[in-house]
């Protein structure tokens, strides 16, 4: 019969090796248990586990030096525990050559038995992202941890937009255990799109992608670290990668004709898109650019004509009005050898509903956090096969200002001015501004311009899609 042992009642694990060693010049008993715990007494009982705290070890003369992590518990971060990490060496000296050899064998055996720890990673560093500090973050906070953990790195600084995507689409991925983006969400999305455009996308998708926050938004890494009580820092993110922690992630396919874009974070049109993209000119402010430009946009509030159609998730069928949707046939015609083509859902068989404009904001989210201080979709799940839809039609400016302050804890979705639901498929038919019909908006996906309408955000760059109807479907658990 199986019995349950509460954590405190756990039976002590037998020792793999137990010995008297020198620690800080004092003879001290040191034990490595079968479940990987290193125990010694230095004024009080100390413990360090191979699974969590010990990254690697090396022999230096007669001494064994362990590279370890110590958890720092902050008090101010995000209302949570604010867990973060610092590096620390732990040195001990076995009394005999034989016992040093035995210690090394046992430590190596334990560290080698840890599954999921990466050995070789491809790292993209975007020197242009956020406050342009990614290079410094990488050299000072990320690389030392990977070095301590003996993870080999192939580092590539991104030199221009879409550089990461181009590389990922064509390089030999077989030599890597994962790809890491020291950047904002933009480079992550490039990597995802590059992988999905490969002919061998099914294999490519098995490669885990890690994030280290060095952008202005950092919504994905915040969504990963916050639920486990870790601060959104470079050290926490790097430690999670070293430990091999993984989560599955849904991928949304946005299509317009045969053009496709794969999104893992969000799609926005209206207020949120305007703030996200038009505030680029304040990039030097870091994440404060969203608040500063957001205020300006609310004071001069825009509303857009248009229509959205959606297939509600079970329980959300009362939103909107029944509607029929003629599926964009062109988007399903594809050459399967070219890469991932989106989910094989028969959209015509689904129960569609619609909401007609004007709209202040339409926001579709795959993960909870849109940025480090924006809990856009508090109920969003990484791999539930649904997208969270947040819609705002008319809203008084004062109420809107108060909603902006509620974005940090996700309570904006409780406002009577906000509709918040889960959808399986979605169609956006964007229109012009109600006050100036010759001006249209911006469609933003994962922080990048997907489409820009007439006389919207001034920029000569051509967008991937035109400012017209878009279809969005979601596949469950595509990425890791
Ligand atoms: N050397 C470069 N010069 C100019 N742009 C670059 C360079 N390298 C990458 N980029 C582009 O910079 C854009 C933004 O990058 P990233 O996502 O890292 O930062 P961010 O936009 O500040 O953060 P977030 O996406 O979290 O808001 C991406 O579209 C990427 O393609």
TrEMBL record:
Name the PROSITE patterns for this protein.
DAGK
One GO cellular-component annotation of the UniProt record comes to: plant-type vacuole membrane
Q: Which SMART domains match?
A: DAGKc (SM00046)
Name the EC number(s). Answer: 2.7.1.91
Q: What is its main location?
A: membrane
Has the keyword Membrane been applied to this entry? yes
Instruction: Kindly list the GO molecular function terms attached to this UniProt entry.
Output: ATP binding; sphingosine kinase activity
How does this chain sit within the bilayer?
Peripheral membrane protein
User: Which positions make up the signal peptide?
Assistant: none
Q: Cite the DAGKc domain residue spans from the record.
A: 116-258
Q: Which InterPro entries match?
A: ATP-NAD_kinase_N, Diacylglycerol_kinase_cat_dom, Lipid_Phosphate_FormReg, NAD/diacylglycerol_kinase_sf, YegS/DAGK_C
SUPFAM superfamilies assigned to the protein according to its UniProt record, in alphabetical order = NAD kinase/diacylglycerol kinase-like (SSF111331)
Q: Where in the cell is it found?
A: Vacuole membrane
Ordered alphabetically, the record's keywords are: ATP-binding, Kinase, Membrane, Nucleotide-binding, Transferase
Q: Does the keyword Acyltransferase apply?
A: no
Per the record, the GO terms for biological process are:
cellular response to abscisic acid stimulus; sphingosine biosynthetic process
Q: What class of enzyme is it?
A: transferase
Q: Give the protein name, as stated in the record.
A: sphingosine kinase
The species is Raphanus sativus
């Amino acid at each position: 019969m199986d019995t349950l042992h509460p954590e405190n009642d756990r039976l002590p694990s037998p020792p793999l090796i137990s010995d008297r060693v020198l620690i800080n010049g004092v003879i001290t008993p040191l034990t490595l248990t079968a479940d990987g715990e290193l125990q010694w007494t230095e004024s009080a009982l100390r413990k360090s586990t191979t699974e969590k705290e010990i990254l690697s070890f090396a022999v230096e003369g007669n001494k064994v030096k362990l590279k370890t992590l110590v958890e720092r518990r902050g008090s101010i971060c995000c209302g949570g525990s604010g867990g973060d990490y610092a590096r620390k060496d732990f040195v001990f000296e076995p009394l005999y050559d034989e016992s040093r050899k035995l210690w090394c064998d046992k430590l190596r055996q334990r560290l080698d038995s840890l599954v999921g720890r990466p050995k070789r990673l491809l790292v993209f560093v975007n020197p242009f992202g956020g406050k342009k500090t990614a290079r410094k973050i990488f050299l000072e906070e990320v690389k030392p941890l990977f070095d301590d953990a003996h993870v080999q790195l192939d580092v590539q600084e991104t030199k221009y937009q879409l550089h990461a995507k181009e590389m990922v689409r064509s390089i030999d991925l077989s030599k890597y255990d994962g790809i890491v983006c020291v950047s904002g969400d933009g480079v992550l999305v490039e990597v995802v799109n590059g992988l999905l455009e490969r002919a061998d996308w099914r294999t490519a998708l098995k490669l885990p992608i890690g994030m280290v926050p060095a952008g202005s938004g950092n919504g994905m890494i915040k969504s990963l670290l916050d639920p486990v009580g870790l601060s959104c820092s470079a050290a926490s993110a790097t430690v999670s990668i070293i430990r091999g922690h993984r989560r599955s992630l849904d991928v949304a396919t946005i299509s317009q004709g045969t053009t496709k874009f794969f999104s893992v974070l969000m799609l926005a049109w209206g207020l949120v898109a305007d703030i996200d993209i038009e505030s680029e000119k304040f990039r030097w402010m870091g994440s404060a650019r969203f608040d500063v430009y957001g205020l300006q946009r609310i004071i001069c509030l825009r509303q857009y004509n248009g229509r959205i159609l959606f297939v509600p998730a079970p329980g959300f069928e009362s939103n909107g009005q029944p509607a029929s949707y003629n599926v964009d046939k062109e988007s399903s015609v594809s050459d399967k050898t070219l890469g991932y083509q989106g989910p094989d859902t028969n959209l015509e068989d689904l129960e569609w509903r619609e909401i007609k404009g004007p709209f202040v904001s339409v926001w579709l989210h795959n993960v909870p956090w849109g940025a480090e201080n924006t809990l856009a979709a508090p109920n969003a799940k990484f791999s539930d096969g649904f997208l969270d839809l947040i819609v705002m039609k008319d809203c008084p400016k004062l109420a809107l200002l108060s909603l902006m302050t509620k974005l940090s804890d996700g309570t904006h979705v409780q406002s009577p001015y906000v509709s918040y639901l889960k959808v399986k498929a979605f169609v956006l038919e964007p229109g012009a501004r109600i006050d100036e019909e010759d001006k249209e908006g911006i469609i933003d996906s994962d922080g990048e311009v997907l489409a820009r309408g007439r006389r919207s955000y001034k920029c000569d760059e051509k967008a991937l899609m035109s400012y017209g109807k878009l279809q969005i479907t979601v596949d469950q658990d595509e990425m890791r």
